[in-house]
């Protein structure tokens, strides 16, 4: 594999690992602080799927000798904080957070799938990302269908969360 493609694959692994790590932090904090047992059960199911994703990228990091993002301590704190805050703000904000984050992640994964397909790289890796993309899309659809009120404050929060997620992706690719 050419160095350019090797570096791109490692970048994908690093950023995807960082994202799945952050997702674990968000969902686990939401589970910890949520008062709604039905919501906690669904969040636990989602967190379990995200853990499968995280474990895959951890194995890929070892196999490809890819270093993790240096931002991990910040994503640890930030993800936990975002999860806790949304839980305290209520179920609607938990769903708004999930919808916003997963919307960005689905597009992020789709770009990776396209790159891998276009450059005829690592079909197995591409299919795994496709599976994870489908999971993330299901999480987004669940959140959308359970979002009760999407008023100005919720929409502002979603926009803030989308931009935060995009920034985390951009930073984690390189640092």
Structural features:
175 residues, mainly alpha, Ferritin
Explained architecture:
- The chain is mostly helical.
- It has a single domain (3-174), classed as Ferritin (Up-down Bundle), CATH 1.20.1260.
- Helices cover 87% and strands 0% of the residues.
- The protein contains six helices and no strands.
- The two termini are 23 Å apart.
- The mean pLDDT is 92.
Summed up:
This protein is an all-alpha fold. It has helices at 3-33, 37-64, 72-89, 91-118, 123-146, 152-174.
CATH class: Mainly Alpha
Largest sheet: none
**Class inferred from helices and paired strands:** mainly alpha
Indicate how many domains the architecture comprises.
Answer: 1
- By DSSP, the count of extended strands is 0
How would you summarize the topology of this molecule?
Layout: H1 3-33, H2 37-64, H3 72-89, H4 91-118, H5 123-146, H6 152-174
Helix pairs in contact: 1-2, 1-3, 1-6, 3-4, 4-5, 4-6
């Amino acid at each position: 594999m050419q160095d350019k493609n090797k570096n791109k694959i490692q970048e994908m692994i690093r950023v995807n690992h960082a994202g799945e790590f952050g997702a674990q932090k968000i969902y686990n904090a939401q589970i910890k602080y949520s008062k709604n047992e039905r919501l906690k059960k669904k969040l636990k199911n989602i967190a379990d799927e995200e853990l499968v994703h995280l474990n895959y990228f951890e194995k890929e990091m070892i196999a490809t000798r890819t270093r993790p993002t240096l931002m991990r301590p910040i994503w640890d704190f930030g993800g936990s904080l975002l999860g806790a805050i949304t839980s305290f703000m209520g179920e609607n904000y938990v769903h708004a957070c999930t919808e916003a984050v997963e919307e960005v992640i689905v597009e992020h994964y789709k770009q990776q799938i396209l790159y891998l397909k276009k450059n005829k790289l690592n079909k197995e890796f591409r299919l795994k990302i496709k599976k994870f993309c489908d999971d993330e899309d299901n999480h987004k659809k669940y959140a959308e269908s359970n979002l009760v009120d999407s008023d100005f404050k919720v929409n502002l929060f979603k926009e803030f969360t989308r931009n935060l997620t995009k920034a985390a992706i951009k930073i984690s690719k390189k640092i």
